[in-house]
Amino acid sequence: MAIPALHDTLGAAYVGNIVAACLYGLTTLQTYTYYNRSPKDPVVLKTLVAILWVLDTLHLAFVSHTVYEYCVADFGNLIALLEPTWSVLAQVIVTGVSDGIVRGIFCHRIWILSEQHVPTLMVLAGSSLLAFGCSLAFPIVGFRYTTFVGLQQISWILYLGLSTVVLSDVLISAALCVLLAKRRGNFRRANSIVRNLIMYSINTCLLTTLCSLAALVAYAASPHTFIYISFYFLLPKLFLNSLLATLNARKSLRDQLSKDSVQIPLSSGTMSGESRTARGFDTDRLMHFPAYPRNASDFKGIAVAQAF
């Protein structure tokens, strides 16, 4: 009797677990860096980062449990590959919650940069909530089925969820790029900051969008394998790493802005009304990030950097 090929089932899950573990190590490093670099960040933001790291840890535990069940506990039992473990569906829930929090942070940035433009926020929030809802609906309904074949009956939820994830990420990236481009001024340092942040915004959603598309295509092309699951293992870690990268980049961006320039420390209490009008909005309140020395000619660039 010929032994069936396992490279697109156990092999795909195994590779996905290894890459997810590597990304988790990067997440842990970036989280440690964040708390070292941003001791004055608000408690709310610090708490959200801690929650995201805990969710990421839980996600890796579920992924590892899935691979352990198939490769060790059910070793040699090929029938077990037809049955989804509880941890497969549980990690989908964790992914939805984690990605929902990250998208909420990005939407808050856009809310600030757009100067509280309600229609923009409604579009982004609507797509993000739909993606979040699908990520919860699929596993909750999926617990009723005992085989992957049975899960195909609700495949429309998975298709809708992954498509909405792609749409939401593209919209968030596009909105950030457009709003940042509008913040360009007449000062070279400020414009340099804006260009860097635009690149960060593009990279933020590029990897997650490609990964979501890969999962969507893999499921459509080969729903009976675990290839799409291996891509899904990586989604929350890519998204969280993108967020942490932008948070950790703030210090270098601020240093770049203040390099070789005369610093004029100003506080929100001493800044004149005229200065507040010039910069367009209160930078001390953007994302509740701490104030730092400002160059009088770069209010616009600082306001943008503060929002990140």
From TrEMBL:
Matching InterPro entries: DUF6534
Keyword field contains Ribosomal protein: no
DUF6534 domain residues: 166-252
Transmembrane segments: 12-35, 47-68, 88-106, 118-141, 156-181, 193-220, 226-249
Descriptive protein name: DUF6534 domain-containing protein
Lineage: Eukaryota, Fungi, Dikarya, Basidiomycota, Agaricomycotina
Pfam families reported in the protein's UniProt record: DUF6534
Top-level taxon of the source organism: Eukaryota
The species this protein was found in: Lentinus brumalis
Keywords: Membrane, Transmembrane, Transmembrane helix
